[in-house]
Amino acid sequence: MASKLTGADRIKGTEKNIWVEFGKLAVENEALNLGQGFPDFKPPQHVIDEMVTAVASDNHLMHQYTRSFGHPRLVSALTKLYSPLIGQELDPNKNVTVSVGAYGVLFCAVQGLLNPGDEAVIIEPYFDCYEPMVKVAGATPFYCPLRPTKTGQVTSSRDWKLDPKELESKFSEKTKAVFINNPNNPVGKVYSREELQMVADLCIKYNVICLSDEVYEWMVYDDNKHIKIASLPGMWERTVTIGSAGKTFSATGWKLGWAVGPEELIFPMQILHQNCTYNCPTPVQEAVAGSLEYEMKMLDQPDKCYFYSLAKELQPKRDMLTKICQEAGLSPVVPEGGYFMMVNTTGLNVDFPDDGTNDPRDFKFVRWMTKELKLAAIPPSAFYNQEHKNLGENYIRFCFIKKDETIAAAGDILKKWSGSLKK
Ligand code: PMP
Ligand code: GLN
Questions:
Q1: Which residue has a Cα nearest atom 1 of ligand 2?
Q2: What gap in Å lies between CA 184 and CA 196, rounded to an integer?
Q3: 93-113, pLDDT tens digit by residue?
Q4: Does domain 45-297 have CATH number 3.40.640.10?
Q5: Measured in Å, how far apart are the chain's first and last C-alpha atoms?
Q6: Would the CB of 257 count as within 6 Å of ligand 1?
């Protein structure tokens, strides 16, 4: 008799996880870590103060369960923030829900909205968990890549485009949802209104739910503007917009995420959440609520409002990393948003050993770089399905939400290395 002391069939094939492997590798090798996306500096002081105040409060309820679908003060703050941005009068109880990070919200969306046998369209490169989440739900993913349309030593995420015909070919009458990540991780693309309209037209034509992951919504550079796809005509009723306190306030360990959308789509997510997590930590929600209220008072003062000041702080870091990569003979794709940079590594004639695995080139490259150069990155082919891994394997992904000295130290490593190659 076959052993029953095993995992469920539905998780088979989802064992590998880049964050687990490459996080461990960076720590074991004591490498300078431009891999996993987290800041190496503290959140703004007022955010920390909000948490301290919540925990030290005389109100004993601050330490107890709160409302399952989001602490009342938090959902109220989210409603105030997003109503004007989406162009809908949001109801805090019906149009907003929270979970454990954007991960938790994505899980509630996928499990709560997709049936086995449904199809989902995923735009590549995508945040890696979309694929296993869809498969575990019993649905079938179809993938459409953003393709680089320009070559050169320095290009822009703007040059990564969807082919409208290719995208439409992924839709069918079975398609229930499309995933879009704007600004995109790892490319940094910020979709133009025209590009969003093209995706929206397909959602409307095929009557599809749009899962719009906007965790980097405030991190946009130069003259780029982040547009919420939910604000386009005909999209509110079919869009779930996802955000993250960890990303918004540079506190990735706080693990609080939210979704905003029509009641018909938010309610199933709430049902899923109530029987899975029930509620998120009360003091974290209280602190995030207070932090959002603080920033909302500052919205017309971009120098003081963290939503804008963080992007202003990040842009020179992006430019510093671009220059470093360029000088080392690597080819960076300058991101319009987010805090990651794709860097093409094929310009350098580097000989790195085969590690004996069947993994794509970038996995081998990053493993080698982490061990030998003591510089950690993420292999972007992990953000593509098996068939399209070749589209990512000539790149590595660097994270630049780091202190200037960290980025400069990475520059020293890359300079030394590229200098040694020229000899
Ligand atoms: N979506 C994207 C695009 C991400 O990069 C991440 C990583 N933070 C998440 C979702 C998950 O966010 P959280 O840490 O809030 O769970
Ligand atoms: N979102 C983060 C990134 O892209 C990390 C997510 C994780 O560590 N699981 O780097």
A1: 37
A2: 13
A3: 999 999 999 999 999 999 999
A4: yes
A5: 63
A6: yes
